[in-house]
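Attaching the record inline, Q. Sequence:
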Amino acid sequence: MRILIIRHGDPDYKNDTLTEKGKREAELLAKRLQNENIDGFYSSPLGRAKDTCLCVARAMGKEADVVVKDWLKEFNHPLTLANGRERHIPWDMLPTEWTDNEKMYDYKNWHRQKCYRKAGMKKAYDEVVKGLDELIAQYGYVREGSRYRVDEANTKTIALFCHFGLEMVLLSRLCNLSPISLWHHFTALTSSMTTLYSEERRKGVGIFRCAGFGDIGHLYEGGEKPSFSARFCEVFDSEDRHD
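Structure, as predicted:
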């Protein structure tokens, strides 16, 4: 089984859709994927993700196959950090606010930290995980502990159109990694595609392996400059965003 996790194109947040650049990104992505065999299209309910998904599905003649899943919406859950600083999204902490705490890197304990407990982050995380597990189970891969029971081995492909913060939650579950380290050490640019394959080295026992993260080859091929969305300043003395 192959899972494609795709971030929406460059967003027009105000109008809940894509910018003109985002539309170009989506078209280039559609061109790249139009000859792929995708068995399931699943989209966030938010316009920027739905518009990206529909652009790709339309290029394949599968627009009617798109299924909207509420659990694919952006993972926006505000929290108050230990130093009192309030953040409106959970993946916007400074290195000094989390890297010295080893439990932040722990897949099983990250949510036990006070700031996450007070924000109810585990409940929100579990809602996404439940949706993902139920979807994958429909394709024959049933979550058991930290791996998957393979009830129906297959090579089908599903595409999940979502958002940066949410994508890191999906990867956290599929790869048994803390979302904190993923949120802060990785970034998936707009219209990027992450690819995971199932792996069944012993009969009935499966995991998922990431074969490509945040791929934006379609943008380079189409001469479209990658967006800065989801990034922060590369060097301190720059005009790019710091916060």
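The helical segments are 20-33, 47-59, 114-119, 121-138, 164-175, 179-185, 217-221. The chain has a mean pLDDT of 95.

More tomorrow.
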